[in-house]
Amino acid sequence: MFVDTLQFLIKTLSGLFVLVLLLRFYLQVARAPFKHPVCQFVMAATNFLVLPARKLVPSVRNYDTATMLLAWLVCLLANILMLLLGSLPEVFAFPQVWVALALLSLLEVFKQSLTLLMGAVIVQAVLSWVNPYNPIAPVLDSLTRPFLRPFRKAVVGGVDLSPLVLLLIVQVILMLPVRMLEAGFLTQLKVVIQ
């Protein structure tokens, strides 16, 4: 029971921190207005780790690679801790375990990115009906606009269905290729552990 609780805490806290790191990365990519309190929170919550990492990892084509690398490392560390709590430490002697953990962590970053996109689209859609002039609307718009643009013609009776179309596509991606890859990496881990 203690191990389950510890695994839950590791998974939850690392997942939340990865979401904040990814939000920082995507806000910079989208050139979102950073004067909003949410953006200020994201910067304050991640500066302690991102600023020192930027000294070691340079940006590539104006992309904050240090932040993305940190998101991957947090996922990797969480996966290592989960494996340590669930099995014997000797499994780390096998290179296949490290490859599977690295790929599983990369897949987790991708999944978290899709989760972040889905959350932004849902909040933006709700706000467009409830409070379209909310101060966070420009931030959400800058995050979702590139993904919604291809579906903007999906208007029925004056209602923009592009968020619904995008959410369906993201769900299908999460259900098929992502789940299949994840199952493959986990199977590789189980084979080595046994």
Structure, described:
- It is built from six helices and two strands, in the order αααααββα.
- It has helices at residues 2-30, 37-56, 65-86, 95-130, 137-148, 162-193, and strands at 155-156, 159-160.
- A two-stranded antiparallel sheet has the order 1-2.
- A hairpin with a 2-residue loop joins strand 1 (155-156) and strand 2 (159-160).
- Helix 3 (65-86) packs across helix 4 and helix 4 crosses helix 5 (137-148).
- The longest helix has 36 residues, at 95-130.
Shape: globular
Oligomer: single chain
**Got a strand count?**
2
Straight-line distance between termini: 23 Å
Beta content comes to under 5%
N-to-C series of helices and strands: HHHHHEEH
Computed structural class: mainly alpha
How is the topology of this model organized?
Elements: H1 2-30, H2 37-56, H3 65-86, H4 95-130, H5 137-148, E1 155-156, E2 159-160, H6 162-193
Antiparallel strand pairs: 1-2
Helix pairs in contact: 1-2, 1-3, 1-4, 2-3, 3-4, 4-5, 4-6
Quick overview of this protein structure:
With 194 residues, the protein is mainly α. Helices cover 78% and strands 2% of the residues.
